[in-house]
Description:
mainly beta; twelve-stranded antiparallel beta barrel; two-stranded antiparallel ribbon; 16 strands
Amino acid sequence: MGLKSAVRYVLLAFFILNSQFSIPSPAIAQDTASADSVVAPWNSGGSFAVNFNQVALSNWSGGGENTITIGGLVSLGSDYDQGNRHWANDLELGYGVTKIGDLGFRKSNDKITLVSKFDYNATERFLYSALLDFRTQFNDGFDYNVLDSLGEPQKVSEFLAPGYLNVGLGLTWKPADYFELLLAPLSNRLIIVIDDELSAAGAFGVDPGENLQSELGATSRLKFEKELMENVRFNSMLNLFAPYEDITSIVVGWENLLGLRVNDFITTSISLDVRYEEAIDITRDDGTVGPATQVKEALTVGVGYSFR
């Protein structure tokens, strides 16, 4: 079994185990029903959403192209909370494609994000913390502006190329339920590029020819999650990683999501993701190549459902 398949099975097993742990046995359920003071330590839930957009034109004087956009997002969570111990696990899967005119479907969204954080109360507002943050994608990504010798678009990414695994130990300040700040001065960031061609090119900051690169550094994570008003929720997470080898070369990841629920099934969301990493060269909008701030904005309307 290859590394790619092994990672997929690990992700699946991780959440199956958490789901099993979070479901009480009949005996425990009876005890809970007979004693109101007993609270199950596990709490699991999630949501999924599907969005679809189509524009069809025929003899349209204003011009334009026929378009079809299909996307989906799944969020799963399993949290443990008992006494001074807190363990939060979140898995987010997203994928979307767009077809413009006579061109084939092209990927517009693709992400796998797994975050697991364990906290132990030091005081009421400060917690000792251990963080695991893993990120990659499902499918190949292409640069359609660059063609190879066969006239095919250049492949620039795939599953586990890149993959990012960040583990850290530190302290969390949590003055309110909706806000927390983690400082983890003991952190290790692992960059994975399993594709040999991308590895040979030194893609995503790995040394040419290497599939893995390890960086020791410090992690900082600011998280804000709150319902601003009825049916309007805002989530924001800012992740910073500073490698000790080059402390000023800070890796930035900032994710924002504003969700608006029309009713139990119709949802609207606006997302804004910002990334910057000095080691990654990008073909900029002006045609030059080098590090650049990456920005992705999306407005979606679709059908969604939440469960807990």
